[in-house]
Each structure stands twice: as C-alpha cells, then as structure tokens.
Amino acid sequence: MTTADIEKQVIEIVREQLDVKPEDCTLDKIFTDDLGADSLAIVELVLAFEEHFEIKIPDEEVENIKTVGDAVNYIRARRKA
Amino acid sequence: MTGRRVAITGVGLISPLGVGNDENWRSLCAGKSGIGPITRFDASAMTTRIAGEVRDFDPTRWIPKKEVRQMDLFIQYAIAAAAMAVEDAKLGPPDDPERFGVYVGAGLGGLPVLEATHDSLREKGPRHGISPYFVPAIIVNLAPGQISIRHNYRGPNMSHVSACSTGAHSIGEAFHLIARGGADVMIAGGTEATVSPLCVGGFASMRALSTRNDEPTKASRPFTLSRDGFVLSEGCGLVVLEEWERAQARGARIYAEIVGYAATSDAHHITAPPPDGEGAQRCMRLALRDAGLAPTAVGYINAHGTSTGADATETGAIKAVFGEHARKLAVSSTKSMHGHLLGATGGLEAAICALALHYQVLPPTINLDDPDPECDLDYVPHGARKVAVDVALSNSFGFGGTNACLAFKRVG
Asked: Which of A21, B94, B321, B346 has the lowest CB atom count within 10 Å?
C-alpha cells in the first residue's frame, strides 16, 4: 500500500466518521479543533483505523495523533514495521 | 395541587399513526389503525409478528447525520418530538434557561442497540465490538439530556422510569414541579423504540401480546370479548408545560390546563393488577382531589385499555370511582389505533387528552365489534365524536403495580 493509498483511505474514514466535506478534510486538519471530534469520536476513529488497516494503536499513542496527517504517518510507519 | 397554574402549550407526537402532530390527530379522528407486520427484524420465528412501527421517520430532519448512529432510536424520537413540541408552542430559545427543564422517560430504553452490540461483542470481542457511544446510546436519561443540549434547557433534567406509566408520571411530576415553583417551562413525556427480538420475544414469552397476525389492524381491540393481548408499538409523546401567567403573557395558544395528578402503587403483583383495581381507583380519586374536581365534572377518560384482561379491571375501577356517573362519561382506548407504546404511551395519551379538549372531539375505540359484557361503558366505539367536554382524565398503569392518573381542563 503506497502512502497515497493510505492517505486516500484515511481521509475516507475520517469523512465518513466525522461527516466532514471533502474540501475540509486535508492533512493539516486537527481532529478536535478543526473537525469537531470529541474524545468519544477520537476513540471511534482510532478503532476504525485499526480495523481497516489491521494494526493496533495503543491508547498512550493516540494522543500523538492530532491531525489527519499524523494518522497517515503513524499508519504508514506501523504497516512497514 | 394548590400552587401555580400550568398550561399545555405544545405537543410533539410520533407514533405508528404518523410523524407529526397533524398526522396523528387526523388518524385518531379518522379511526385509523397504525398496526402492521413487523419489518424491523425477521419475526418469522415469533408467535407475534405484528407491531405498531413508526413509518417514514427520517432522523436527519432533526439530527446531524454523524450523530444519528451515536444514539438509539428512542433518543432520536425524543429529539424530534421535542423539536416539534417547542415549535408547536412557538417557544423560541429560552429567555431564562435555568427555569426550563426536561422530564422525559422510557420504560426500557435502548434495547435495539444493546442487542446489536451484544452480537458484535461476541463476533469481534470487546475492543472492536463495542462502540464508545454504546452507553450514551442506550441509557434512558440521554433522551432528556440530548433535548437539553439542543435547546439549552438548564433546569431539572431526568427520567422517571415506571414501565407503561412512564410518560404519564413524567408529565405529572413536571406539572407539580412547575406548580410549586421549581421551573417555569418543562418538556415532558415518554419515548420508546423497542420493536426488537428481545422485546417482542420477552412480552410474547409472557403471553402478553396479541397473536392476531393475519389481521394486524384488528389486533388491538380493547374491551372486546375476542381481545387476546396488547400490540407492541413505538414512538414518542411529549408536551410543553408552561406556567400559566407566563403562557398568557406571551399570548401562547393553550390546548388545555393540566389540573391534577396522582401516583399510586398496587403493592400486589409484578405484572397483574388486583381484581378490584384498588390502586387504579385510588389513583383516579387522588388525581381528582389534586384537581379540586368532583367525579361528575369528568366528561372523558383516555383509558389505559391495553386489549388485555386488565381492561375489565380498569372498567370496574372506573365504575367504583364514578358510580352512576360512569354511565354518563365517555371512555376510549386510543391504543386500539396506535397500539401500546410502553413508556411513551402515557405521553402520547396525555397529549391526546389535551387535543380532545382543545378541538372538542373524542377519539374512538376502534375494533369494538364484540364488547365484553364485563366492559359495559360508553367506549366511543368505531368513530370519533364531536362533543362538549370540559374535563378529561388519562390513566396509565405499569408493571410493578405502578399507576398514574392525569387530569386536564378545557380552557375558557
């Protein structure tokens, strides 16, 4: 899976979960401040990433995933490892 | 109740008869049944395969799409009905939010999401099988909680849970709260959405449900000899209660005044009333006393009338309370049309009483083709009736032997 693939799929999941418009869902967007996610929505998002990309994201690492771009980078690193 | 007077200035109705106040009232006056085959799940293995399902409910009319899947259907109904009630009352945003509250309950709460989540827990395990929204999706008091968030109502907010009298108790408690000065405006009533395998199966297991699967619209037939159980139904019935002077000052349309409320317990059996309906009798008497009304003032009773054996008990209790006057007043069970909405039913039926007083029309008991000799009152059979009526009562009784009675008075 290329970085472009991961990016496309992450954006699709974020759009679906947080019900945001395509133009609003860019890599620099912060889930909480920009996309309206509360703590429960973040949990739901992380679980969706886990299921879709078949990885595990430990709770203590979730706080480092603040933007859409953070999620893409994290998932790319995890899938290589 | 001595204290401040309380007006009903808005209603919000969702039932198998329709989504919206006009839709419901029109169907009630037309004597239409909302009962049909179960479509929510495959009921082919059930002894009961009919229910009163709400049709054409689009939650996104009231709730952002991403939030819809964060809450069970009973909460969606409550949010929608509250929006309708507030609009119907022409309330606008609260001028003094701390004086605005919400008492909305449910008898069972979020069974459909509970059932689905249990399935996914078994399939996927705890980490991926349980949504972080699971708890707020199913707990009963998220119905009033969600309403308060959307309307900025910062006063008392809770759910009274008393099975099939939930809606009536919620309205009665809200009425007394306003009367004694604890709030100025309350959204109150009940909501329920449990046309699900566990709920239908559970009541079927008690042999409490009608099995008239081939004739769904005839299945809810209170007070008849051929009644064979209640018809499970769903929806939401809410009212806006408002301190009288406030309602008058803003020129609100007042459907009716709520004048009396009582709550009693049978202390008898988990599901059955005592043969003489003592708790129900006492409840009606106390509600009349609360209202400062003589039994002879009452022109209409919206009966609990579930289409079970207890219809005869309620009839006996009405005769005991009203004596000779029981032959003069009109009684109807609108459950013959909308079915039994469990925790929501008392809310819907209270709103129906208010509308009956406002429009001076009594909705009928349909399907009363073969009256039980033990049920020998004037049940407004088959069709609605245009009458002059000043005072209406609404009876609601629940498992656990809990009873509620509300009294309403015509304006003017």
From this structure: A21
Q: How far is A15 from chain B (nearest CA, A)?
A: 10
Contacts of B412 (CB under 8 A, 6+ apart): none
DSSP B331: E
| pLDDT (average), residues B252-276 | 97
pLDDT beyond 90 at B241: yes
The verdict on whether A38 is a catalytic residue reads: yes
Read off the pLDDT of residues B384-405 as tens digits, 9 standing for 90 and up. 999 999 999 999 999 999 999 9
Least CB–CB distance from B128: residue in A17, A41, A50: A50
Rounded distance, CA B202 to CA B192, Å?
Answer: 16
Structure tokens at B307: 């289409």
Q: Are B290 and B257 in contact (CB under 8 A)?
A: no
Cβ(B387)–Cβ(B323) below 8 Å: no
Which two three-digit tokens encode residue B274?
A: 């005592």
A38 touches chain B (CB under 8 A): no
Residues of A in contact with B64 (CB under 8 A): 19
Domain ends where: B249, B283, B314?
A: B249
Give the residue-averaged pLDDT of B89-105. Answer: 98
- Does the residue B40 lie in any domain? yes
Task: List, for residues B7-53, the tens digit of each pLDDT value.
Answer: 999 999 999 999 999 999 999 999 999 999 999 999 999 999 999 99
% of chain B at pLDDT higher than 70? 100
In B, minimum Cα distance to A46 occurs at B128
B49 vs B109: CA distance, rounded Å: 21
What pLDDT, on a 0 to 100 scale, did the predictor assign at position B59?
98
Q: Given an 8 Å threshold on Cβ–Cβ distance, is A51 in contact with B128?
A: yes
In this structure, are B245 and B264 located in the same domain?
no
pTM to 2 decimal places: 0.96
Mutation pick from A21, A44, A56, A57 vs chain B, by most beta carbons of B within 10 Å, is A44
- Cα four-point dihedral sign A51, A56, A58, A61: negative
With beta carbons under 8 A apart, name residues in chain A contacting B131: 44
> Do A17 and B66 lie within an 8 Å CB cutoff?
yes
The stretch B180-204 carries a mean pLDDT of 98
**Residues of B whose CB is below 8 A from A18:** 66
Query: What range defines the domain where residue B87 resides?
Result: 7-249
Residue B2's pLDDT is 80
Identify the CATH number of the domain in which residue B299 sits.
Answer: 3.40.47.10
CB contact under 8 A, A47 and B66: no
Shared domain for B27 and B50, answered yes or no, is yes
